[in-house]
Amino acid sequence: MTIKEASEKTGISIDNLRYYERIGLIPEVPRSAGGIRDYDADTMHWIDFAMRFKKSGLSLEAIREYIQLAIKGEATKPARKEVLLEAKADLEAHRDQIQESLDMVNYKLAHWEEKCEPLTQELVREWKKNNPEF
């Protein structure tokens, strides 16, 4: 299948498909006798595999490392597991940051009338007093 067909099938732009191949996110795509990329079933599986990792929040670097290790074979199993453990820790930290932000917004909503709105109005009044041109 051509790169255009692969792009249409995956929803990934042609430029990104080339980029992913160039950085090793997907293995080198087989070429036709004329040197044109020929996306076969194996290549499409690699793309799907990489994009599943991407959707789960892994960085392109972590995905590339995992895939390059996988290509090297069974001996890389511990290293691949370590990549996933690091990715999991990063995602958990991100989740915790999101939870902290959500807790803050929920607090502000729960105390909107008695704390947040009066403080906002006071800040606006002070700002207008110091910036009369607005």
What do you see in this structure?
It is built from six helices and no strands. By secondary structure, the chain is an all-alpha fold. The model has no long low-confidence stretch (mean pLDDT 93). It is elongated.
Instruction: Give me the secondary-structure category.
Output: mainly alpha
State the end-to-end distance: 60 Å
Mean pLDDT figure: 93
The DSSP helix count reads 6
Radius of gyration: 24 Å
Tell me how many strands there are: 0
Helix and strand succession?
HHHHHH
Q: How helix-rich are the residues, as a percent range?
A: over 70%
Q: Report the sheet with the most strands, covering strand number, pairing sense and barrel closure.
A: none
Stretches with pLDDT under 50, minimum 5 residues: none
- Percentage of residues in DSSP E strands: under 5%
* Cα shape: elongated
Gist?
The protein is an all-alpha fold. It contains six helices and no strands.
Reconstruct the topology from this structure.
Elements: H1 3-10, H2 14-22, H3 41-55, H4 60-72, H5 77-110, H6 112-130
Task: State the main characteristics.
134 residues; mainly alpha; 0% strand
